[in-house]
Amino acid sequence: MTARPPRVALSGSAGTGKTTLGRRLAERWGVPFVAEGMRTRLEAGLDLHTFSHDDLADLLHELFAEQEAAVAAALSAAGGFVADRSPIDHLAFWLYYGFGGLREAETAAVLDRTLAARSACDAVVLLPWGVLPLEDDGVRSPNRWRQLHVQALVEGLSLRHVPADRLLWLPAGLTDPAARVAWVEAELAGRTGVRVGRLA
Hints:
Blueprint: E1 7-11, H1 18-29, E2 33-34, H2 37-43, H3 53-78, E3 81-83, H4 87-96, H5 99-102, H6 104-118, E4 123-126, H7 144-161, E5 167-169, H8 177-192
């Protein structure tokens, strides 16, 4: 087994339980938790309705660069991380907001950047849509169909761009946080050979 901390990114639409699972895994493994930059901004009062299309594109690039820097810092400090978004999610949001059709050359660069960032992950854990209730918390959209749209993009892109042995599809029947942690640890050890458990 690989004698170093795990490097895991969580993926899926809003409301699938990424943050809860990610914080538990990071604490258990003794590695940094890389929070989702968009959520942090929305909770601080950012209003995307005031953004132009160009502003939104700049924000997506900023969020991706911010996560890349946080992952690099985590690797330098601890040798591992748990991220509350995968690089695939960034590509999915880029396409969701329509930039694929508007900025073709730039989209090709976003894809290349996504694939490069994905290589830092031992595994991408894809959480299922529709198994947890969506909360109307004033931050993320409670519209389940909008979230399904994002989820469909994430799933399709993950199938295409994440190696099958590195893509961990969390079963829909697992909703208990402790059971989710146990499943991720078992799958990570069995499929990637990365040592799990608290390493600090």
